[in-house]
Amino acid sequence: MSRRWGIVVVALLLSGVVWVALLSSRPDDLSYHGKSLSQWQDQLDDHFFGAANWVGMIALPAKTTEQIEAADAIRALGTNTIPRLLRDLSATDSRVFEGWQQAQQFFREKILRQKGFGRDVVTPAKRTRWKAALALDALGPAAQSAIPQLASMVNKPTSSSPCKQASFILAGMGPAGIAVLTNLPPSSNSWQQMCAVWAIGQHPQTSTNLVPWLLALATNRPPGSVGGVPFEIWALGEIHADAAHVIPVLIEKLSNTNGRPPGMQQTAALEALGHYGKEASNAIPALKAMQASPYFREQPGEVLKKIIAGSP
Length: 312
Prior knowledge:
This protein is mainly α and 312 residues long. It folds into two domains: 31-189, no CATH class; 207-312. It contains 17 helices and two strands. It has a two-stranded antiparallel sheet with strand order 1-2.
């Protein structure tokens, strides 16, 4: 029995070595300055857990010097990278991996009684898709030939599809890409809308002209209607432009609870006001009033400090 198990272990180790070798020597890998596309993608990867796994009201980390170098290298490789990167965007986990994940989840939930623990694992496919998204985003408008494929991905709105990654890429492509996100049909489901607004908020420098569109989302629909999360308010703060029109809306959102306890809408409005710094001075009375609320203690005071200091 021990010899049989030894053979099994050796076979598994050998298969692992072969698998790693295959991954590290892709036949369609281009190279630039002695590094393959895959290596540049690894260097560009932000390793930000949330970006690879879910959509949240948080901005991506600022790029490091190494990441900027990798983005420049990918731009130098050019549009020849697009076919490979599009294939990576559609990456899926193997059935073996999914089976192993399900077995682990069963063990945690049924044996250890740890409900929900470990469900947000960044799987190999999720990491591959996010690295492809970062690379295509680095190409920017140069990758516009991929807009039809990316638009198709946006229109397959499931949490396991590349809808989020495709939206992120389109938001950095300029007017042609952004038009796909801002012209989603009224019947679009909440995941599509969440991905679209989140992606625009991740590109604040190129999204200032979208403030009117975001204001329309914030004022013409029920609070937090984008998937129940006020991504449009968060995105307005990330862009922090057109204070004359945005600040009054944010002040209104501070007190608009629709008969419910304050929640994400007010939290998002507070954070957005903080991005405007001194430009949000009109919000000082409302913020001082919020300091007496049992729901909000420290955050209104932190925003007041930013406004008084005159910096976001």
